[in-house]
From TrEMBL:
NCBIfam families: FeS_syn_CsdE. Residues 24-145 form the Fe-S metabolism associated domain. Pfam families: SufE (PF02657). InterPro entries: Cysteine_desulfurase_CsdE (IPR017763), Fe-S_metab-assoc_dom (IPR003808). One of its GO terms (molecular function) is cysteine desulfurase activity. Belongs to the SufE family. Keywords: Transferase. Its EC number is 2.8.1.7. This is Cysteine desulfurase sulfur acceptor subunit CsdE. It comes from Xenorhabdus santafensis.
Amino acid sequence: MTQPVETILAPHPFGTEITEQQLIENFRQCKLWEDRYRQLIGLARKLPPLADELKQQNIEMSGCENRVWLGHQRLSGGSLHFYGDSEGRIVKGLLAVILTAVEGKTPEQVLQAPLAELFQQLGLEQQLSGSRLNGVKSLINTIQEIARSHTL
């Protein structure tokens, strides 16, 4: 007997086709901020736009300069699928970085993922404005809250 196919809302290549190790290697080659900026724009282009019916108010992040949506679903195997979108290209690229690090992981693995350190490792943290850095921290906190809610 075959297992039913699970419907993934808003599939994307992050965490599967595009891995955290690939990100680190790509950003390591960037010597200038402009090169990192181009990497973020490229990542934003690879994150498919979220369908309008998924851009619900309950997954819209508050307090961000650009509109940002971050949703999730728990898959039958216990792992989490995160999806999102943003109206801003840089923010969408930053979201793609986070999705790469958390996609397909269990809630426990998400809680152990050193997300803030990833931004340091990619050379992004020191290049972001204070408001963008706060937005990244807010995304990370929301993802961790989601993971915590699935460990109870």
